[in-house]
Amino acid sequence: MGLYQIEQLHVEQDEVLEAARRWVAEGAKDRKELHEAEKNIFRIMQNMGLLLLKEFLARSGNGQVVGALSLPEGGSLPFHGNNGCQYLSIFGRLEIERAYYWTEGAAGRYPLDATLNLPERRYSYLLDQWAQAGVVEQSYDKVTGGLGELLGLPIWKRGQEQVAREAAGNVDPFYQALPTPEGEGPVLCVQADGKGVRMVPAEKPDEAQTSLAEPARRGKGQKPGQRREAVVTAAFSFTPQARSPEEMACCLMRELTMEERQAARKADQPREPLHKTVRATLFGKERAFEILMEELRRRDPGGLKPIFMLVDGGSGLEDRFWETIRRLGWEHRVAGVCLDIVHVMEYVWEAGTALYGEKGAGRVPWVRKTALALLRGEVGRVLGGMRQMVTKDGRRLKTSQKRALAKVIGYFENHRHKMRYDEWLAQGYPIATGVVEGSCGALVKDRTDGSGMRWTRVGAQAVLDLRSVKKNGHWNSFWDFHIARERERLYGKCSA
Predict the structure, then answer these.
(1) CB distance 461 to 168 below 8 Å
(2) Fewer CB atoms inside 10 A, N or C side of the chain?
(3) 228 exposed, middle or buried (CB, 10 Å; 0-12, 13-18, 19+)?
(4) Could you read off the pLDDT of 365-410 as tens digits, one per residue?
(5) Tens of pLDDT along 454-479?
(6) How far is 98 from 78, CA to CA, in rounded Å?
(7) Residue 32, class by beta-carbon neighbours within 10 Å (0-12 exposed, 13-18 middle, 19+ buried)?
(8) Model's pTM, two decimal places?
(9) Is residue 124 within 8 Å of residue 162, measured between CB atoms?
(10) Of 359, 445, 353, 438, which Cα lies nearest the Cα of 404?
């Protein structure tokens, strides 16, 4: 006789349903408030769900077969007895009775485990999926506490931390198995940037990360704690559509009316990012670009589409990009490496403020004129004009003004090879890193930079991997993949 008897379960189900109907009738008569009705009905339905799961188990049996249990790898095991295990479902805790096959010197088997695809931790996969959907957005404490209170179940923080790490191990295989997206654009675009994550004291940064380490004295606005760089990458495709320097200048200077902005957005639709995929890694730039190149292979298996890269002023990411490209022999595919125009404009505004003051009448016209010249590909002329200010007009400039101009001149000289904006606008390519800039905040900062948060590298990486899956719109399909991989790991391909 099994743990659960179908006839008895039917009696209990009828009793629960009758109790629910009675409560609804009496609650309405007693003028109960609607939220009270919701709460009570929810708990009643949880009870009903638990009874229905018990019936499902009763109908599934305990996995016992006639005679010995034949093994896929050959041989057989005799029946040894019945063993129970606990399982935490979204409806409550269940006891599951399973037939056990074992003989001395051999690993025992529970056939029912494979039939039901029981998770190793005996936490419902659905419960884990719900909990992890919260974990990628909020702290473990908030999620386990909130979901536990909602369901009336004990959900342990440590358990969900381990679930996150195990599930994150399937993120790379999931993306490698994804098919090439349908409706891709003819050009692939990649972007990369970095965002610091505060680590626990034991997680000292690598030598390459020393710029992110805690300084002897923090500057204004700097936050305490050792930081390790999360390298954020983004990949998407797009359909080129040309723009004029004048159009772009109006956008950068925010000179468009509401109607003009709407028209510009409509005109930009063909150039919108298609099938955007963002990732983040705390294991260095080399790892970040391995992930990025694997994504490009998935999106363009034939290796035929040109690759366009957008970067900010950091040389490390551009250098790593070219190292990876050369190692793969993809130099011929690179359509260009573009310096983010928004970062450039920050320098232009800084110079304009130094020359004319924050509220000076000449500031905005000078900035607009300079921006338009850069967008027309006249970087040399802009540099020449600034140098002339420093040399010929140097006597009337303050030291602070000269210093500001020198900073901009140095920045433009160092990155001039990435400022061919006239060519890229004519070809219809994007020239701003908005996708990855937004991802640094939405993917990394918003989750990892909360008050008092400190991370281990492994723990933070697990959350970032799963958060990227959620942000990329692949959450449900990833969990289907993860559960299938767990089935194969625990029970082998023959159990599918």
Answers:
(1) yes
(2) N
(3) buried
(4) 999 999 999 999 999 999 999 999 888 766 688 889 999 999 999 9
(5) 999 999 999 999 999 999 999 999 99
(6) 14
(7) middle
(8) 0.88
(9) no
(10) 353
